[in-house]
Amino acid sequence: MSSGGAQLSMMRQVLAERAEARLSDAALRLLVEQAAEVLLLVDVTGRVLVFNAEAGRQFRIAAPSRVEQGELPGCVWVRAEDGATPLDVSPLTRALAGEPVFEERWGLRRPDGTVVVLRGGVFPVSPEGGLAPEGVFLRAREEVPARLDATRAATLLAEAGALLGAELDAEARLEPLLRLMVPTLADAGVFFLGPAGEAVRAAAAVHAEPARHVAMVEMLHRYPPDAADARGLPSMALSGRTERVACLTQAQQEDVARDEEHARLLLLLGLTSYLGVPLVARGRVLGALALFRTEGAPGFGEDDEQLAEELARRVALSLDNARLLSEAREAVRLRDEFLGIASHELKTPLTPLHLKVQLLQKQVEVLAAHGKPVSAERVSETLEVVQRQVRKLTSLVDNLLDVSRITAGRLKLELEEMDLASVAAEILYRFAPAAAQHHCSLEMHAPVPVLGRWDRLRLEQVVTNLLSNALKYGAGQPVRLTVEAEGRTARLIVEDGGIGISAQDLPRIFERFERAVSDRHYGGLGLGLYITRQIVEAFGGSVTATSEVGRGSTFVLELPRGDIPEEWLSVTEPLA
Ligand code: ADP
């Protein structure tokens, strides 16, 4: 190689080495700057060479150019124990005099008067290996005091109690509650609502650091809790047990993340310790409280666990009370609405009854005044109306009595052998006039007897309820009744082609007082199907409905045939 060529290659090497040195310098500077510890390098003349971000945060001053007599501008080294007495000699001065200062605690009064306790060391630095140091290097971190003494815990519980007693929507209290716990008990917290295995949602979240709070809210928004993917959920707490991880590692957090972005957001939060406690009230898990601590804070201990559990118990009770209150209010609302409907329904038959009787009375008076007898035809016509309306009233009152019987658990069944097909046929026959009135045709399909042991009156009541609904809501379309058997199960199906029931209303029509139609268009107490279901369930059977709005409804009754002889199962001829 020519000497020119050798020079060129040397120059390239030197340049490469310089670039490398610059890179590693820059990396070192970055490392120092971003370290979670206070890092400070001072030369023997007092010139400050390194003063990282954490130093600025702890000393609460901008990077100073000099240290005078071991003191930073505006700051005073004080005793860690009382925070008022200045130290005789600053740790920096001691190190500058050549004495290494190993792991000690000092207090530092900052320019704003607050005192922070630092734990760390100061080391003389001699790059040339000489005895006299050329500078000193201080590294320290804030010593976070044990978070909760008994007084603070009691205060926290008292404040939480006051908040839980406030006239607020129960869920609206969750965030203020977290704000009480953060940062006294934890650096971040999330309330998850919904028990394990069901839809879980994050109802409130708070992080002590504003930037991290934003990241946490974003993370919960972008990665909402997913019961199907338990990662990232306080699963153990949601299934009713407390979980405490004193030291939460980065790997553990990466493990629960659903993808890289999730992991990135999670790691941004700086979580280092985790405590998950269940929200349990009256033996039911309502959700979980997840608490976290971040870098520099001690891991959660047993005391923290006890306090968090106590808080969670109170929160759960208040959530449950709120639920009960709203259910009770809803029940009262429904009852009031029902009373309105019931009075209206009871009054409806009374009006024609009253008018007919009044009319007859007038006629009797007029005829009597003229000395004429009342025609038997007229009396009988009035009595027919009276009887019809009295029947209606009786049935309404019977329904009300049934409900109170069911509520009190006094529904008694008197079982006897019978043929469901005959019972159904008889009722269908009774419905002929009503069907004509509703312009509905009635069809029956019951090819063979279906024998079983049931309570006749209650069975009749059930079939009557289903048939009268089919006519009432049947919009003049044919109504079809089918009776069949499948082994030890008897089945009765009532189909109509009427107004139908929306999918949204379908689940509630069997509940007490529930109606899916307006009372302006259709009378009724909303009790028929409730009573039907109660009776059917008392028989050990079930009643279900399928429907399509505008196309009609199908009600299927399935009843166990009870304790009947084997040979009855295949009877194909009507009973004698
Ligand atoms: P109601 O006295 O209101 O008829 P029910 O308990 O018998 O009370 O029925 C509850 C509600 O279910 C009714 O208000 C109606 O909205 C709906 N429903 C019941 N049967 C039918 C049907 N065959 N077709 C359409 N809707 C029905």
TrEMBL record:
<dbReference type="InterPro" id="IPR005467">
    <property type="entry name" value="His_kinase_dom"/>
</dbReference>
<dbReference type="Pfam" id="PF01590">
    <property type="entry name" value="GAF"/>
</dbReference>
<dbReference type="Pfam" id="PF00512">
    <property type="entry name" value="HisKA"/>
</dbReference>
<dbReference type="InterPro" id="IPR035965">
    <property type="entry name" value="PAS-like_dom_sf"/>
</dbReference>
<dbReference type="InterPro" id="IPR036097">
    <property type="entry name" value="HisK_dim/P_sf"/>
</dbReference>
<dbReference type="InterPro" id="IPR003661">
    <property type="entry name" value="HisK_dim/P_dom"/>
</dbReference>
<dbReference type="InterPro" id="IPR029016">
    <property type="entry name" value="GAF-like_dom_sf"/>
</dbReference>
<dbReference type="InterPro" id="IPR036890">
    <property type="entry name" value="HATPase_C_sf"/>
</dbReference>
<dbReference type="GO" id="GO:0000155">
    <property type="term" value="F:phosphorelay sensor kinase activity"/>
</dbReference>
<dbReference type="InterPro" id="IPR003018">
    <property type="entry name" value="GAF"/>
</dbReference>
<keyword id="KW-0808">Transferase</keyword>
<dbReference type="InterPro" id="IPR003594">
    <property type="entry name" value="HATPase_dom"/>
</dbReference>
<dbReference type="InterPro" id="IPR004358">
    <property type="entry name" value="Sig_transdc_His_kin-like_C"/>
</dbReference>
<dbReference type="Pfam" id="PF02518">
    <property type="entry name" value="HATPase_c"/>
</dbReference>
<keyword id="KW-0418">Kinase</keyword>
<keyword id="KW-0597">Phosphoprotein</keyword>
<protein>
    <recommendedName>
        <fullName>histidine kinase</fullName>
        <ecNumber>2.7.13.3</ecNumber>
    </recommendedName>
</protein>
<feature type="domain" description="Histidine kinase">
    <location>
        <begin position="341"/>
        <end position="563"/>
    </location>
</feature>
